[in-house]
Amino acid sequence: MTVAPFQPAEDNIVEHALQGGRGRLRQPAKGDRAGMDAALLAAAVAAAPGDRVIEAGCGAGAVLMQIAARCPGVALTGLERDPAMAALARENAALNGADAQILAGDVAAGFRALDLPLFDRAVSNPPFFDDPGALRAPAEGKRGAWMADDGLKAWTTFLLKSVCEGGRIVVIHRADRLADLLALLGETAGSFAVRGIHPYADEPAKRVLVQAIKTGKAPLRLLPPLVLHDRSGAKHTAEAEAILRGEAGLGW
Predict the structure, then answer these.
(1) For 19-55, how does the pLDDT look when each residue is reduced to its tens digit (9 = 90+)?
(2) Residues ≥6 apart with Cβ < 8 Å to 183
């Protein structure tokens, strides 16, 4: 299915700080906007200098810019099918002085269509839905980010094909899709590590972070959860706030 690209007017673009001022991000004031999920995904990437990292579906580049701020010396590549969002990602790379190339393309076309060497790490926040009947029509500008037209398998296949043997894949997704993620990534990857993301300590996880290692054979590890809020009235828990400000990562 072909999705018309979202065309944000210049007066619909806002710029704000990332990670307590360590970076900047220009993105639409309305529509597909980066938030907590992007911060958590970036915090789960512990790339070393010289590593090559690709993000499938990079949007305006929020994850890439936060990885760049946290992991100096890393070469970043983003793939985005919406030309307007890809243009914003290029602007953000220039704004932050990041070593990032942004490519126009669709995950559904497969990794080989990019004609690139394999990467050390691949990350993604895939669209959360692949059944149009399970979702009310999203607001303008959000459909491409919310709806996986070719299904979750297209995304996991792309990620698996994009990394070298021993390469790491990190995905953030709905908690109720965990079994699907493990099954799909488990086709050629293993050594899973899973971290639940809970809105409150006494509520079920709504998100999961999953790391897989291509050809990994180690047993699955279920890591301590991350709790985003408490009942004290503070906006975030101390751990979540440290991640948002770029002062802490999410180790595996």
Answers:
(1) 888 999 999 988 777 789 999 999 999 999 999 999 9
(2) none
CB 24 within 8 A of CB 246: no
Question: C-alpha angle 146/31/7, rounded to 5°?
Answer: 105
**Would you give the distance in Å from CA 24 to the centre of its chain?**
17
Q: Which residues contact 126 (CB under 8 A, 6 or more apart)?
A: 56, 57, 148, 152, 155, 171, 173
* Residue showing tokens 């076309």: 109
End-to-end CA distance of the chain: 37
Is there a contact between 240 and 229 (Cβ–Cβ < 8 Å)? yes
68 membership: H or E segment, kind and range:
helix 62-70
For 177, other C-beta atoms within 10 Å of its C-beta total: 19
Side chain identity at 220, as an amino acid letter? Answer: L
For the ranges 103-107, 129-133, 170-174, the lowest mean pLDDT is seen at: 129-133
